[in-house]
C-alpha cells in the first residue's frame, strides 16, 4: 500500500512538471512571438530614423540655400539703398563729391590700417560703388608701394585657386591678416596701462581716445577704470567725485576740468585793476567817439609871433653889414686866409716832429 501511494505521488509530481514545462513552453512561445514583434518594430524604427536623417540632410541643404539667398537679397537691398540715397530724389545731386582717401603703402600700423579701411568703406558707400567685384577693384587702386605688390601676389593666388577674394569684406580680412602687426592688440593694451597724465589734460584725453580705437573689445568698465587711473591726483579726485557711469561721461568731466584750468591760468595773469593814466585814456576815448566836425584840434605853437614888434634888422656877425653871413662879400677872403693859416701851422708841426 505504501508503494502504491508513492507511485501516485510520483505520478502527480511528474504531471506537475509536465504542466510547468507546458506553461513555460507557452511562455517561451509568447516571448519569442513578442521578440519577433519587437524586431519588426525595430526594423520599422530604423527605417523611420533613416528617413529622418535623409530629411535632416535635405533641410540642411535647403537652409544653406536659403542663407545664400538671404545674403544675395541683403546685397541687393544695400545696393538699392545706395541708389536711393545717392540719386533717388529730384532735388538731390546724382553723386556726392567726396575726396578720395589717401593711399595705403603697406605700413604695419594697426591704427593706419583701421583708418584706411574705414575711409575706403565710407568712400565706396558715398560714391555709390555697387557690385562686389567693383568694390574690390576700387579699394585695390587705393594701394601703393608694398601694398600693391601684396595685391599682385594675391591676384595670382586667386587665378590659381589658392584663395578667393570676392567681396570687400574678404579684401579687408586678407589685408588685415597680412599687414596687421602681430600682438597689436596686446601692444595697445600695454600702451593703455602705461599712459599717464603728465602734461595737458586735454592732450591726455585725446591720446586716450585714439588708443581706445585700437582696443574695441575691451570692457566698458575697464576703459573707464584705466582712464581714471592714468589721471593726476587732483584730476582723478575731481572725476571720481562726479561718479561717471560711462567713459563718455568721464571725457565730459575731464574736458570741463581742462576748460576750468585754462580760465584759472588766464585770470592769474590778468591785471586786477586797469591803469587810469590820469584820465587821459578816457578823454581820448570820448574824443574818438565825437564826430570829426565837433572835435577841437589843439595845435602846439613852437614859435610865438608878436604882431606889434618892429621889423627885424638883418646884421652880419662877420662884418657887421646889413646882410646875412652867407651873402657877405668878405667871406671868401676870410675863408682863404683861414685855410692858409691852417696849412702853415701843419707844416710847422711836421718840422718839429722830424
What does this structure look like?
With 354 residues, the chain is mostly helical. Among the domains are: 9-85; 110-179, no CATH class; 184-267, Non-ribosomal Peptide Synthetase Peptidyl Carrier Protein, Chain A, CATH 1.10.1200. Helix content is 67%, strand content 0%. It has twelve helices and no strands. Helix 9 packs across helix 10. It is elongated, with a radius of gyration of 55 Å. This is Ty3 transposon capsid-like protein domain-containing protein. Residues 262-304, 327-354 are annotated as: Disordered.
Task: Give the secondary structure arrangement, pairings included.
Blueprint: H1 2-87, H2 110-127, H3 132-140, H4 146-160, H5 168-179, H6 184-194, H7 201-212, H8 220-229, H9 233-242, H10 247-268, H11 280-289, H12 331-353
Helix pairs in contact: 9-10
Organism: Nymphaea colorata (pocket water lily)
Keywords: Coiled coil
Domain Ty3 transposon capsid-like protein: 98-268
Amino acid at each position: 500500500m505504501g508503494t502504491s501511494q508513492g507511485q501516485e505521488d510520483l505520478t502527480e509530481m511528474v504531471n506537475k512538471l509536465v504542466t510547468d514545462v507546458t506553461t513555460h513552453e507557452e511562455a517561451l512561445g509568447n516571448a519569442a512571438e513578442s521578440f519577433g514583434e519587437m524586431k519588426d518594430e525595430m526594423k520599422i524604427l530604423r527605417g523611420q530614423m533613416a528617413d529622418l536623417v535623409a530629411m535632416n540632410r535635405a533641410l540642411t541643404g535647403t537652409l544653406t540655400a536659403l542663407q545664400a539667398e538671404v545674403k544675395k537679397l541683403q546685397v541687393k537691398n544695400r545696393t538699392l539703398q545706395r541708389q536711393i540715397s545717392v540719386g533717388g530724389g529730384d532735388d538731390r545731386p546724382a553723386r556726392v563729391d567726396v575726396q578720395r582717401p589717401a593711399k595705403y603703402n603697406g605700413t604695419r600700423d594697426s591704427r593706419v590700417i583701421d583708418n584706411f579701411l574705414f575711409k575706403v568703406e565710407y568712400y565706396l558707400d558715398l560714391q555709390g560703388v555697387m557690385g562686389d567685384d567693383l568694390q574690390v577693384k576700387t579699394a585695390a587702386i587705393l594701394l601703393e608701394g608694398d601694398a600693391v605688390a601684396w595685391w599682385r601676389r594675391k591676384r595670382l593666388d586667386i587665378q590659381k585657386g589658392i584663395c578667393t577674394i570676392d567681396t570687400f569684406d574678404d579684401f579687408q580680412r586678407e589685408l588685415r591678416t597680412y599687414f596687421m602687426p602681430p600682438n597689436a592688440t596686446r601692444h595697445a593694451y600695454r600702451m593703455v596701462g602705461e599712459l599717464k597724465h603728465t602734461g595737458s589734460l586735454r592732450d591726455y584725453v585725446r591720446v586716450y581716445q585714439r588708443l581706445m580705437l585700437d582696443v574695441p573689445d575691451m570692457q566698458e568698465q575697464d576703459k573707464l577704470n584705466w582712464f581714471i587711473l592714468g589721471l593726476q591726483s587732483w584730476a582723478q579726485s575731481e572725476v571720481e567725485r562726479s561718479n561717471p557711469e560711462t567713459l563718455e561721461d568721464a571725457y565730459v568731466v575731464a574736458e570741463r576740468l581742462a576748460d576750468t584750468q585754462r580760465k584759472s591760468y588766464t585770470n592769474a595773469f590778468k591785471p586786477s585793476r586797469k591803469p587810469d593814466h590820469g584820465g587821459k585814456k578816457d578823454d581820448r576815448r570820448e574824443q574818438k567817439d565825437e564826430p570829426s566836425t565837433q572835435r577841437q584840434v589843439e595845435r602846439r605853437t613852437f614859435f610865438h609871433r608878436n604882431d606889434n614888434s618892429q621889423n627885424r634888422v638883418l646884421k652880419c656877425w662877420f662884418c657887421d653889414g646889413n646882410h646875412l653871413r652867407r651873402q657877405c662879400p668878405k667871406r671868401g677872403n676870410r675863408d682863404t686866409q683861414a685855410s692858409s693859416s691852417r696849412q702853415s701851422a701843419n707844416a710847422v708841426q711836421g718840422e718839429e716832429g722830424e
